[in-house]
Amino acid sequence: MKRATHEVTPDAQERAVLVSLVTQQLKREEYYDPEYSLAELIRLAETAGVEVLDTLTQSKEYADSKWFIGKGKAEELKQRLEETGANTAIFDQELSGAQVRNLEMYLDVKIIDRTQLILDIFAGRAKTREGIIQVELAQLSYLLPRLSGHGKNLSRLGGGIGTRGPGESKLETDRRHIRNRIDELKRQLSEVVRHRSLHRERRKKTGVFQVALVGYTNAGKSTLLKQLTQADVFVENQLFATLDPTSRTLKLPAGKEIVVTDTVGFIQNLPHDLVAAFRATLEEANEADLILHVVDSSSEMMSIQMKVVDQVLEELGAHGKDRVTIFNKIDLCPPEQTDMLTAEGEYLRVSAYREEDLVRIKELLESKLMGDNRTFRIPAEKGDVISLVYRVGEVLENGVEGGDMLFKVRVNNKEFDKIGYMLAAYESARQASGHAEGETTDHV
What we know:
444 residues, Rossmann fold, six-stranded mixed sheet, 13 strands, disordered N terminus, disordered C terminus, GTP-binding, nucleotide-binding, cytoplasm, GTPase HflX, GTPase_HflX_N
């Protein structure tokens, strides 16, 4: 076959051959499926605006330290690149700087790995100051130890994937300059984290119930937020359509308002540098009163996606939070498949586009917010505690007995503890001032 040659021009679209190496170690990993991982890499490449021309898979006991896929397979890859006219090779696994340098010199095309591709997509989606800082920090942290392996990438005309975000000029400077830039970004990010923590503290003090939507990328979290709150939220059927966290107020049937936050989607092999940089954003899940784990019921790899989300939540320390699984997109599933959707703990099967399902979600949130029926005995002079009862709970009955007010209230455990703490503090003050001991609270 005659080999075609294609000159790379500034306006050339990225045309890529995708490469996957399946090692014995990967085969032993619980969440890894080579075919699904490669299919996901294709979607990631298309999301980044790359035209995928071909795929190549290699099985080896372990990665080759010089060529990653081995010299023989590298020769086959070179032939594929020339035959298809591709100007980029994208690898499904992370490469070292030396491997990038060796492959780039031999193949004479741009070399990108899965981590860099994901970082590039994030760079294109970041819109807020926080998002831009986090992406640049993740990119620089990833590229710093690999600078020697990206020489031709950075000088190659055309820009495109692998060069967005920090930009070529920053990455071509010496390591000391990049380390200084990383230190500056960390300082800026710590300031952002401080502001975000203050906002969270304010929300806690007001007693607002907080819900975090988490899930695999493209599970429908943004759609669910938009349908529930009628918010102006960007929705698109693509990976990582939402990058920056979005919080909206949701009014429940009984009139109470809660805050719902849509977080960045998770994915297999989410880059560690990205998880570290986005920890401030992902902390929204850790600080929430309730996590809604949104699942794409129509995905063939649903079980793997759910395990990946569990793994990331565990890394964040949010694995033990109160959680409800929302099996979304059931309108895309056959009835027999829908009937088999179950999860540990509470779960709902819904379509974000069905009004009756949205009502069911709101009713579930209300039951989580309002909690159980409790009875409180509160001294009549404690107006601040009585005010708190009306603010955080649903007063079902009230009356007077002696000098105390009796309330039957529907309230969740968190708010119940808050009321109990105030009453305990009041009782301690009473005893310290010489009043007789008495029952100040009776809860059922």
